Structure formats: C-alpha cells, structure tokens
Amino acid sequence: MKKQILLNAFNMNSVGHINHGLWTHPRDRSVDYKRIDYWTSLARTLERGLFDGIFIADIIGVYDVYQGGVDLTLKESIQLPVNDPLLLVSAMAAVTTHLGFGITVNANAEPPYTFARRISTLDHLTDGRIGWNIVTGYLDSAARAVGQDALTAHDTRYDRAEDYLEVLYKLWEGSWRDDAVLGNKQARVYADPSKVTPIRHDGPFYRVEGHHLAEPSRQRTPVLYQAGTSGRGRRFAARHAECIFITATDRQAARATARTLRAEAVEAGRAPEDIKIFIGISVIPGRTPEEAQEKHRDYLRHASPEAGLAHFAASTGIDFSRYGLDEPIEYGTSNAIQSATELAKKKQWTKRQLLEELALGGRYPLLVGTPDIIADELESWIDEGEIDGFNLARTVTPECYEDFVDLVVPVLQERGRYKTGYGGSSLRDRLFRSGDRLPLDHPGATYRI
C-alpha cells in the first residue's frame, strides 16, 4: 500500500511569513491577518481540502541583523508585526471539526505552570486537536526584549527545554488520574480529592510545586512538534518530538536526515514509526503548464529576494549586507539556527547565489506546474526522501491554498496518496492511528499515574 501524504498549511499570524514581498500582490489578503474572518475562512478551506493541520509559526523578537536594524524588516513586514498564534485557535476550531492546530510557543518565554493550563484549555476547546511546536528561540533581540543581556548558548537552550518539558509532563500526565472527575451533582463531588495530587519538581532551571489547574483533556499532552536539526536539536527531537520539521534542498538530503532522526529515535528507546517527518515546500499549480508558469512569473514580480535575505541573516546571525555580490562569506559557528548556517557553509553560497535561491522570498523547494506534475514531485519527495508529509508555505493567500485544494488534492486522491475523509478521534490519533494519548515508549508517558 502506498504511503499517504500528510499535509499542514504553514502560516503565521503576520503579514509576511516565508515567501516575502507577496503581500504586495493585488490578490493577496495577508494584510487582513488581524481579522477573524480571514482565519476562519482559511480554516474552512483547509478542512475542505482534508489538511491534517495548520502549523502556525511564531517568533519573539525582531529581525535586526541585516543592515544592523529593522528598517527593511518593517518596510517589507518580515514577520513584523506579528500577533499571538494561540488566540487564533478557538475561532478556527469553532468553524471546523477535524483540522488540527500546531502552535509555536517558545519554551523559554513563559513559566511552564501557566503554559500547561493554556494548552490544556485549547485541547479541551478543540476536543483534542492541539499540537505544540517546541522552539527554544534564536534571536538576540528576543533575549534583550525579555530582560536578558544576550541569547543563551545554543545547547543550553535545549537543556532548559528538557527541564521545561519534564515539568509539563508531570502536570499533563501525572497530576490528575483518569477517573478523578466524577461530576456527581447528587453527591456534590465534581472531582475526587484523593485522585488529584500536586506535582513537585526541583530541576536545574525550574522549581514547581502545585496541582495542574486544568482537568485532563482528550490528549493530555498535545502532539509535540519540533524543528531543530542541529546535533543537539536532533537528540532533543529523537527523545520528545512526534512530528519533526526539517529543511532539505533535495531528496537525498531529506532521506539522510530522516534516516538519522529515526535511528536516533530508536536509540532513545522509541520506534521509528513514532515520528512523522515534514519538509517545508512552496507550490504554484496551474491547469496548464503555461498557466502555472505565468502565475509563477506574476508572483516573482511582487516577491522580495532581499527580504528573504534579511530573514536568512537573522537565522544565521550574519549581516549579508556587508558583503559584495560575489565576495566570499565567512560562515562561522552560529548561536542562532545552526542547521541554516551549516547549509549555507556547505553550499558556500555568495550573496548573489543567496538572492537567486531566494527569488520568491523564501528558501523552500518550489514546485511549479500542472496538478499531475506537482503530484509526481510530491510523491517523489515522499518515496525517495523517506519523509511523511509537507508544510505547505503560503505564497499569495488565500488563493495558494484554494488552488492546492481544488487542483492538486483530487489528483493525489485519485492516486491513493491522500485521504478521502478524516479518521481518528484526536489529532494524535489521526496522525498515528494509535489512540489519543502518548505511546508508552514516549518519555512523557512515564509520568502517567
């Protein structure tokens, strides 16, 4: 049986996200990101297309590496302004039944005790459709904004996240027993006190003592997403992540990363099928090759490669504005996104080459063509790259998602590579077909009462 493709819409609560400059396109509606109907309409489209979820990115801080400031960041709205992603969920959940929500929250941004309640609340309100994309931050501007002198060292950020997760597992999995809630009006007992206990945690970064404020939700622990592919990031993902977001420029690179991640998951005591691997991708479909190519040319006229370069500068910590177009770039060690720096160093990209890579404003693989051609490419990435699915980056919104749903999804369904209906009771169950809760070989399950 052919592997079916998993699919998330990749978005952000902002004007600009990955493919920069396209907010200037006359058909683009991303400037309406502040309106609820913008998001509810998108959610309906995605559920009509049977998307597994919407994956919402987020940052704390601003992109101020390029040219040593935020002038271009503000002019091109390079993820600035950016609003809170969690506040979108209730509105989108209210107009959908099955669509999942992968929400990015920095593990170093707020105390684990209050964050645990926010996620449990959303898991209740969505009836088990919440995922959390665990990030540790990579911007010095974010560290300064919350009162730190500079960003903590890369590996230390992951050490802190490990401690953070242990607190969360104790709260989500271990504070309330499954049968604690009685809801007995006659006996006037909503919850059995003997079955609700406080957690006690005294770790290297966090000290917590208290009861989890929320009763158990369908999933208890949300589906755990993670995007780190540095050495330390991979070890963290192998231990904790259920869905891993990787960046790959070709199928061979995707396959190598996927095999490494699955092998490290096995070393961590988990099964290789316990993780689903996604890559970011951009798609421009047309009913004919000519229509697709014309749409691509049209998009390019509005895209901003320089804005993409400013975004990449923040990812690597390198101010590319200081270099000439063909001048060799010094790619040293990075305290930001190490995988981004390693890729650029391996490719020995010059500024001119980076701008070519970022022609559409983003650096994900770009597929342009008829629905059949795009389906061929997606299948090839799944089979040769040994991945499970895609985070579909927006171009001109909402038409990029509407085009994919109307043109590409039916072809994938005809080929048996995409579902024809939703199944499962929760986001986790739909992705893994193994129930609502963390599997027993996941470290979080060890805190279960």
Automatic annotation (TrEMBL):
Record has Oxidoreductase as a keyword: yes
UniProt-listed Enzyme Commission number(s): 1.-.-.-
InterPro entries in the record: Diverse_substr_monoxygenases, Luciferase-like_dom, Luciferase-like_sf, NTA_MOA
Binding site for FMN: 58, 104, 154, 158, 230
GO molecular function: monooxygenase activity; oxidoreductase activity, acting on paired donors, with incorporation or reduction of molecular oxygen
Luciferase-like domain ranges (all copies): 28-382
Similarity field: Belongs to the NtaA/SnaA/DszA monooxygenase family.
Name of the protein described by the UniProt record: LLM class flavin-dependent oxidoreductase
